[in-house]
Backbone:
């Protein structure tokens, strides 16, 4: 059975993705900063789905450790999904470089660092799939979260370039653009229920779209059109809005 | 996130701060930094028992930690729902030891309400099958069982979350050979007959009855008794026998929004009851059915609670001691005269149980819905007085409105329970709108 590596496996979205892939029989590699917190999920996947599951220590901000982390995995994964992210505190980040750099490095630099490693390994054997969870926040900067948004914009551009390059090596790259998702990351926000997806819905969409080798997935689907509208507002008007 | 929360009865609806956790450390941190907390599972209790200023959702704390397929022992985090447990265990030949009429409750909720099912007279309530559990109390994370920290154990079973947040639960499952139930339905013309039928069929593992509360005269208390056993492989038809433990297909009906209140008026209720009774045109029907329609007939209609309109409803469930058949008659008569009852009235005979604060006791239990309307609570207070008079009590998981005296006068161990709550939850860090309404004294935190 193929193996999927889930980076940032502690989040609600990651749990849903792990369960989705496990239900299809995939072996699961869970990676997060504190692997002790993954053991319950690891047991859960084994019992519910009779699959192999392992937990690994991974810190997105420890760039230097990324190559050895990837090399030391018990099996080279067939699918790598980068789920980790850090929404952070926009207002704090405006004046506090610690916060700003954590937002930028988690969402952009850290993701690039680990996916560079995965990309080289997959390109060398001409197979594999890389899935990056970016965000619709990267489609246009807004005053309420442009630090997060700009990092995700960079990540989206990285994924599109990586897709272009790895296509020629037989490796597929999918960009996932979730809109609002009901997770702990957004627990403090009041989200409109009709526009908000459950983590399990996002996981289903990702699994299905990856099977069809989609390039860019908006989830829920209507976010493609919402973002189309938001990105087509002329800048001279957009800057006057308080979004 | 701040939001309007209500449980299954859609009454009351309150503005609460809702948080969630997926690992124990997050729960611990939340509990350390907040007051007035109550755990909330899937929101299937009917009233205000899981509402508080800070409702902490257990739904993301839903991992299976161990499943011993040889011994039938299951251990999980408290936020997993029964339907998920069944999906995992039934294909391996194990069933829940006790299940209420919906599979959309969490294991934590099953413990906190100490739920009962159609097999109460034979196999007791959920607490009867717990091996051990871990509870995050006001004094830290503690392990308890029928032989360890027994005060905490019995005050947590049926304790409505007042000892703390239930973290993990280890319990025994029940061996099955098929995913089917061999059931028998028997029509009873009146209350005397149904009570006699219960007695005649008490050797069946599962039994309950639908009762029509609106009939008068000779048909007063006409009912359908439903009894059943887990089917043996030889009782299945050829197609079923090919995969005896295969899960039945899932239903998908839903009530998409709150129906206007008049949809369930007296006329429709009467018509429904008449049709329901008439569909069993033979006096006795026997057949083999998948476990889902047998245990969870209403789960097939998602959000059936919206059928009662936006004002919501309360479910009234009481139990009377076995000797008080007259009391049952008196209360049923009162409900019938008023004519405000629902198309759903469930009658069951409980077996013996005498735990600290659990609802069941040997006797008759009746549950029915009342859409919220003007004058309803005064009427229910009248019923409460009757229940008290005949030595009965009300189910806290269904309650949204009982007066404090009713609770303190009907649960014989209520004050003892309160003193244990004070020991494990000093100062009332864990409390609900319900426990405040009943005027619990949480003691002081010093």
Residues:
């Amino acid at each position: 059975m193929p193996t999927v590596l889930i980076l940032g496996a502690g989040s609600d979205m990651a749990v849903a993705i792990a369960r989705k892939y496990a239900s299809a029989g995939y072996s699961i590699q869970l990676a997060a900063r504190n692997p002790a917190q993954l053991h319950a999920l690891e047991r859960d996947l084994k019992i519910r789905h009779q699959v192999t599951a392992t937990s690994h220590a991974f810190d997105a901000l420890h760039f230097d450790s990324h190559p050895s982390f990837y090399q030391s995995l018990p099996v080279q994964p067939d699918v790598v999904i980068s789920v980790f992210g850090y929404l952070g505190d926009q207002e704090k980040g405006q004046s506090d470089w610690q916060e700003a750099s954590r937002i930028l490095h988690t969402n952009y630099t850290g993701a690039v660092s680990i996916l560079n490693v995965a990309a080289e390994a997959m390109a060398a054997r001409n197979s594999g799939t890389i899935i990056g969870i970016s965000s619709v926040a990267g489609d246009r900067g807004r005053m309420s979260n442009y630090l997060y948004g700009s990092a995700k914009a960079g990540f989206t551009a990285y994924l599109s370039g990586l897709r272009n390059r790895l296509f020629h090596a037989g490796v597929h790259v999918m960009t996932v653009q979730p809109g609002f998702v009901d997770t702990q990351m957004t627990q403090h926000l009041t989200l409109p229920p009709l526009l908000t997806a459950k983590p399990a819905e996002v996981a289903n969409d990702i699994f299905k779209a990856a099977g069809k080798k989609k390039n860019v997935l908006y989830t829920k689907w209507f976010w493609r059109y919402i973002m189309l509208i938001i990105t087509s507002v002329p800048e001279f008007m957009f800057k006057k809005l308080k979004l | 996130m701040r939001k309007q929360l209500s449980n299954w009865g859609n009454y009351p609806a309150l503005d609460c701060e809702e948080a969630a956790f997926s690992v124990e450390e997050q729960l611990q941190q939340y509990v350390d930094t907040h007051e007035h907390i109550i755990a909330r599972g899937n929101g299937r209790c009917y009233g205000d028992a899981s509402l508080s200023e800070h409702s902490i959702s257990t739904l993301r704390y839903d991992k299976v930690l161990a499943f011993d397929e040889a011994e039938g022992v299951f251990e999980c985090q408290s936020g997993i729902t029964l339907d998920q447990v069944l999906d995992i265990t039934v294909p391996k030949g194990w069933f829940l030891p006790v299940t209420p009429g919906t599979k959309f409750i969490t294991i934590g909720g099953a413990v906190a309400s100490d739920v009962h099912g159609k097999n109460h007279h034979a196999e007791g309530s959920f607490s009867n099958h717990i091996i051990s559990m871990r509870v995050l109390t006001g004094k830290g994370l503690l392990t308890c069982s029928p032989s360890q920290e027994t005060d905490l154990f019995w005050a947590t079973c049926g304790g409505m979350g007042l000892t703390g947040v239930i973290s993990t639960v280890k319990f025994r499952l029940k061996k099955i050979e098929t995913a089917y139930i061999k059931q028998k339905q028997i029509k009873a013309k009146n209350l005397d007959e149904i009570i006699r039928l219960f007695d005649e069929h008490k050797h069946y593992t599962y039994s309950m009855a639908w009762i029509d509360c609106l009939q008068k005269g000779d048909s007063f208390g006409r009912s359908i008794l439903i009894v059943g056993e887990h089917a043996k492989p030889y009782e299945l038809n050829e197609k079923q026998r090919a995969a005896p433990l295969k899960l039945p297909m899932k239903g998908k009906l839903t009530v998409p929004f709150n129906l206007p209140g008049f949809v369930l008026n007296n006329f429709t209720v009467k018509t429904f009851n008449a049709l329901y009774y008439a569909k069993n045109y033979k006096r006795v029907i026997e057949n083999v059915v998948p476990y889902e329609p047998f245990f969870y007939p209403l789960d097939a209609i998602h959000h059936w609670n919206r059928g009662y309109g936006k004002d919501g409803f309360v479910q009234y469930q009481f139990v009377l001691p076995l000797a008080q058949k007259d009391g049952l008659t008196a209360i049923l008569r009162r409900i019938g005269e008023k004519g405000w009852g629902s198309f759903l009235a469930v009658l069951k005979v409980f077996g013996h149980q005498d735990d600290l604060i659990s609802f069941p006791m040997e006797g008759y239990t009746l549950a029915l819905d009342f859409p919220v309307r003007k004058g309803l609570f005064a009427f229910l207070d009248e019923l409460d007085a009757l229940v008290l008079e005949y030595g009965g009590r009300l189910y806290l998981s269904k309650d949204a409105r009982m007066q404090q005296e009713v609770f303190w006068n009907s649960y014989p161990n209520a004050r003892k329970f309160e003193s244990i709550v004070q020991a494990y939850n000093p100062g009332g860090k864990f409390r609900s709108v319900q426990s405040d309404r009943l005027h619990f004294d949480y003691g002081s935190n010093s």
